[in-house]
Each structure stands twice: as structure tokens, then as C-alpha cells.
Amino acid sequence: MNSILVLVRHGESEWNKLNLFTGWRDVDLTDKGVEEAREAGILLKREGFRFDLGFTSALKRAQRTLDIILQETGQTDLPIIRDQALNERDYGDLVGLNKDDARKRWGDEQVHIWRRSYDVPPPGGESLKDTAARVLPYYQSHILPEVEAGKSVIIAAHGNSLRALVMVLDKLSQEEVLALNLATGVPLVYRLNPDGSVIEKRELAE
User: Fold this and answer.
1) Catalytic residue among 12, 39, 72, 88, which?
2) In the chain, pLDDT over 70 holds for what percent of residues?
3) Residue 10 annotated to the active site
């Protein structure tokens, strides 16, 4: 018996559009982000996916993405668990700053290190390693048991919380995960063994 795990990064947010560091700031989707979520739902419906359970973060851009996907797949009554363990990485003092302005203030190299290194956090914020330290225990204790029980699970979350999860599922090294970028609103579909190991991974896109 194989299980299905679908990961979706939320659609474009208002601050994605403005090129701002967002982190835990609770901003909404843009019209484009709504459309990206709708497209994800249409693709999942076309392939006949039916879910037993949904997980999302405590932030509305991810919650709304999941709601729109479930509207499109006709599963608006799906049980959904929301938890801040799946929140985006906290960018600390960078939150609300334009990324170009941050580069002018701290320099290209320093901002690149904060954004793309594995274990160097921005001031007052989290590194990807810190993000993984809350995402992965939550996955192990709350999501993986549902997968191991044979359920089909969908997670709508954020670029970095999902990168931390993909790192484990795809067995990426700390160096390999730095090159990983997840597009907004594009479902990643994993078919898993009962023990949670990956049989197949594919990206759903037009």
C-alpha cells in the first residue's frame, strides 16, 4: 500500500510581489497567487487526487492556498490541521525590508549568506537549519504517522519550511539543499512506502 504526500508552496503573496522579506508576517495572496492556487487545484483534480487530511501553517497565505486547492478538488470538508511549526522561516530584522535595499545596507555577499546558507541566521531570525529543527520533528510526530497509516496527505506551506522537508525526503545534503528553489503554487507529488521512504517524486505543472 503506497501513500501520497503532496507539498505545495503557497501562491504569490503581496510581499513576494513587492520583493520584501516576509517571514512570519501574515500577508495575503495577490490575484496571481490566487490563480496559482487555483491552477494547482485544477491539476490535482485532473489527476484524480483525493486527500484524507491537510496540513498548513498558521499564516493565511498558506491557509488560503490550501482552501482554494480544496475548493477546486471538491474537498472543502477535508480535515485541516494548522500549526506554526510549518510557518515560513523567520527572517528577523530583515522582515519588511526590500531585498535590494537590504543588499545596499549589508552588501550582496552578506545578504546572500543569510538567504542561502544552511546555518547562518539573519539578525534576530532563523537559518534554514533552525527552520528544519521545528519542521522535521513536527513531520515525524504528526504527519508521517498519517502517511504510514496509508493516508493521502496534502501540505500547503512555505518555501523554506518545505525546503527543510524536501531535504529529508530527497536525501539532499546541506550543500545540495542550498540550490533548491520551490516555485509558488506548483504541487510536488510524492508516492511513499509504508515506512515513509520515497518511491517516486514528480512535479505537477502545465
Assistant:
1) 88
2) 100
3) yes
